[in-house]
Structure formats: C-alpha cells, structure tokens
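Escalation from tier 1.

The customer reports that the assembly of two entities below gives different structure tokens on two consecutive runs. Tier 1 could not reproduce it. I'm attaching the input and our single run for tier 2 to review.
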Amino acid sequence: MLYREAGDFKTSYAEDNQTFPIKFDRYAYYLLLVAAFGVVPFFINDYWANAVLVPFLIYAIATIGLNILIGYCGQLSLGTGGFMAVGAFASYKLMTAFPEVSIIVHILLAGGITALVGMAFGLPSLRIKGFYLAVATLAAQFFLVWLFNRVPWFYNYSASGQISAPERSVFGINVTGPNVDAWAQYMVCLVFVFASAWLARNLTRGTMGRSWMAIRDMDIAAEIIGVNPLKAKLTAFAVSSFFIGIAGALLFTVYLGAAEVGEAFGIQKSFLVLFMVIIGGLGSIFGSFAGAAFMVLLPVLLKNVLVGGMNWPTDVAAHFQFVIVGALIIAFLILEPHGLAQLWRVAKEKLRLWPFPH
Amino acid sequence: MSAEFYYGVEVFLNGLMAGVMYSLVALGFVLIFKASGIFNYAQGVMALFAAMTLVGLQTGQVPFSHLINATFGVHITHFGWELPALVAIFLTVLVMILFAFLVERLVLKHLVNQEPIILFMATIGLAYFMEGFGDLMWGSDIKKLDVGIPQGGNVWVENHTAFLGGDDFYGFYLDTLDIIAALVAIVLVTVLVLFSQYTKTGRALRAVADDHQAALSVGISLRTIWVIVWSIAGFVALVAGIMWGSKSGVQFSLSLIALKALPVLMLGGFTSIPGAIVGGLIIGVGEKMFDFLIGSPYLGGATENWFAYVLALLFLVFRPQGLFGEKIIERV
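Tier 1 run:
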C-alpha cells in the first residue's frame, strides 16, 4: 500500500537512475540520515557506543571495502586484517610525525597508503585466481603482521610493542585518546561511513564498477569486450584497500585507542570481515551494512541472553557463539547464498504487491 | 668439517621432521580435494577435534561437563575410568566416521553443484562450528596428550653422530617423536597409495576424482564416496592430531596448522599425494634453513611465520600448478 512505485513519475534520466527510485525508499533513507546525524548523538551513551554503534560503523566500512573486492570484482582476499593493520600503523606514524595536521587528513592518507600496499599484494591476482589468490593474500596477512611486530620503527620503539593513539581533536572536540565523549567517537565514524557508502555506491554503478563486475562474471569475455583486466583488478584492490585502511585507522585511533598488532589485526579479523560480507550478501552495499550489524550484534545479544539470562559462564557462552556463527554461515550458504541483502530484496518485492498479491 | 656445518645439517634434519608434520596435514586436504573438489579449511580443526576427543575419551572426561554444570548446578568432570590408548584411538576413529557422515548429510548434500568458493566458505563455517563444539564438549584448557609415544632427544642418534664434528659437537639433536612421526607418515602414505590402487573402493575413489559425472554414470554412489573420503581425512587428521598434540599439547593453535598446510599444497599441487609429502618437506626445510641462515642473523628472527607463504607466492607466479599438480589450472 505505502510501498509502491505507481504514481511516482520520472521526467529525467537523472531521476530514473537514482539510487532509490521508489519514493518510500528515498524518504526512509532521508529519515535514517536525519536520525543518525541529528537524533542518535544526543541519546548515545558509552555502552551503546562501545559495544554496538562504533564497532558497527567501523566494520561497515571494512565490509564495504572487502565487498568491493570479493562481491564486485570476484577476487577472494583473506588479508583484510593485515590491510587494516597497515591503515592503523600508517595513521599512527602520521599522527606522531605531524601532530599539527588534522586527524581526518591522517586517516585519509592512511587509507591511501593502504591502497598502495593493497595494489602491491594484488599484483599476483593478474596471474592467479580463486584459492590460489586467497593464499597470496594470506601471505600478505602474515607478512604484514610480522613486519609490524618486528620492525620497531613502526611502533616508535615503544617498549611494549604496542601503539597507542595520542589525543587529537576535530573542531576543538576530542576524538581520540582517553578523554573522548561517546558522541564524538560516533560522529567521526558516522561521517566516514556516510562518505564511504556514498562513494562506494557511486563507484560500483559507474564505469569502474561495471568493469569490476565484468571481470567477476567472466574474465575472458570481459577482456574481449575491452575491459582491461590489469586496470580493473588493480583499481578494485586499491579502492577496497583504501576503505579497509580507513576502517583500520578508525578502529585503532577512535575505537581501540591502543593496539597490539597480532591481537587486533590477526587472521581472525580477516575471517570476521569475510563473514560479514558473506552473511550480508556479496555485491551489495546494503548487505555490507546488514552483515556488519549482524556480526556485531550477534555476540552482544548472545552474551546478554546466555550470560545475563541463563547465567552461563562467559567461556561457555563464547564457545557457544562459535557454534552459532559457524552454523549460521553454513545455513546461509545453503538457504540463501546471496545473504541478508537478498532477503531484503525479496521482502521488498513482496511489499510492493501487498496486500493484493495478484 | 666445522661444527657450524653440522649445526646447519641438524637444522636441516629438524626441518625435514617439521616438514613431515606439515605433510600429514596437507595429506588430508589433498584427499578431500581430489575426491570432491572441496578445499577443506576445517582440516586443521578436525585434527584439533580428533585430538581433543582422544584425550577426552582416554581420561574419561564427561562430554559437555561445563555446560551441564552451568545449567544444572552440579559438579561433574570425569566418569572415573581411564581407557587404554588403543581403545580410545579406535573410539575416536568411530567418532570421526560419524562426523564424516553428518557433514555429508547436513552440509555437502545441500551444496552440490555450488561454486568451489562457496564450498570453501562453508568449510570455514564448519571450522568455526567444530572449534566451538569441541570446546563446549571437552573444555578449552590445554590438554596433555599421551598415547605412549616416547619424547625428547634421541640418545642413540646423538651418540652415533657425535664423532662427526670436533670436540664442541655433541651429535645431532633429533626428537624421538619426530622420527616416529616420519615413520608413521611413510606407513600412512604407503597404505593410502596401496588402498587407492588395489581395492575396489580405492578404484571408485580415483574414478570420482577423475570425473564426477562419469563415475555417477557407471554406478558409483557419490555420497558414499564422500563419506568414505571424509572418514579417511578424519583418520589422517587424527594421526596428525596425535603427533602434534603429543608434541605441544592439545590446544587451539593446533587448528592453525591448517594455514601452514596451504603453502605446502601450493608447492605440491592440490591433487598429488606425493606432492603433499615433498611440498611439506620443502616448506619444513626451507623455513628452518631460511631462519637459520638469513632470518635470525639479519631479519630479527621468527621468519617462520611468513616464509612459507612468500615461498608459495613466488611459486605461484612461476609454476601455478605446483610441483606435481595436473596442469589444468585456469590461468588469468
């Protein structure tokens, strides 16, 4: 009834090609933006920011990045943790080397540096694909973590081998360091998420995104119709790593504050982001958000139910969480290989006809 | 010859022994990949799970004791009996066969004809599931696995090689466990090769590996074959789990050897049993020698973590099918 396209007339090409062609979607999107920017910051508290919202936003950026590589360009990568570490360490080095420059610039630069590293490790993708490429990116993961562990220059020769974010502010408001308000953390991440999603959405439906998808669907055919595989694959690696680098930088500076590379950016992180992509849906920006929300909320929910509700010890609950995550991934692959995004699409199709299905 | 040289040889021999361990894990991968085209990421966790089950059965632990205690407020941990090692191993093999059956029933059956990448991700999910399940069932503490394999430096080898070097050389230090592992691996490979060459089931396995549809059309049941293959892989995982578990205790890090087996496969090729062995040996020797000659003196040590991957990476660029793999890899 409410959700329909009848009566929603388009009079220009621009209107016809917009991201949300249905009026209801568009207004829902504007409403969400208003709520996210204008309402949530006033009601957010430390628990919600730390347990749910900030990690969700940061992982959403990383998931968008990985989704570009896997979902849009079809190149499997298991090096996400390593690339996030590059972003984190790049932002750390920049922050300590040039304290007078704004942290926003540093985070963007960290993304740029990660893009370069990602392109370097993406070079093997020109010769290999599938599992073989996954192993190549696994090499990136282990090599990068080893590098940040072993070369003291990266962590400024600190005794513990940890990096910790110095205090920095944007417009006079602290965003990193120990004295930071929940809403400030949230706002910084939100701005980056909004910009990333907007950028990713528009890149993926432009020339670049189309050439990625052509490579994904069939590389030989893509080459024949004039898509340059070298360019398409390397740009996919660069753009993907750029987002992942920004996510890594935000995770370290804004969320964690201090990080030890093996612990914060280990292979587990790569798998976590990969699961977000699979559960959310390959090749969908909305799916990236859904997957990130799901994987961030699931542990919180399980912990509340199992530890809070049933009084289980935390270690049993943690094991149970593994069981559930594993079972869910298998279930998703069997029942809905296209993830939450596909469920959402199906729901929308149904809603358009509701309540008159014929 | 100087003592330095002999230390080098000792590192080489230890690398060979470590390589045998990698080969054992890689073997499980190759078996499953050949028969079903699935890259089974859960192989490492299977080794962990098998080792945990073995310890649990041997010491008479109550399964899910943590969970039961938490739910009903009781305190039970052990049944109070201990099983002899051989009986426990036999029971564990049964558990692994049951596991293979369940995997086929609940997972693989539904994923027939999906892309390999989807199947790969499903095995990652399986790995997560088993990891949590194993911990729930037997607890996550580090367990000591003892099935009666002697450990420690082998005195015989040490005494009989001491004469090689000068006064400051005391003979090669080799772990007895490693030597036994090497022998077991040799026996295992021989048995597997004989099995696949000379038995009816073995022939069926090879037929499935060659061509699924042709195998189906001559009346070989794919589903039975898959159960058999996963059972064999479970058995290999158990052997690997016993060896690694006796060496360094049964703990989470055991499951990470799966990741070490990846470069082994790259080197040996995904479809070759001898390739898994040779690849494992090359990786084992390569990483130990690299650390000994270049890593420790110049790069600050601990290069073992990534050397194997970088070696595999170089290999991929020049010979993507591995040393012994079939040359059917799709090149871009």
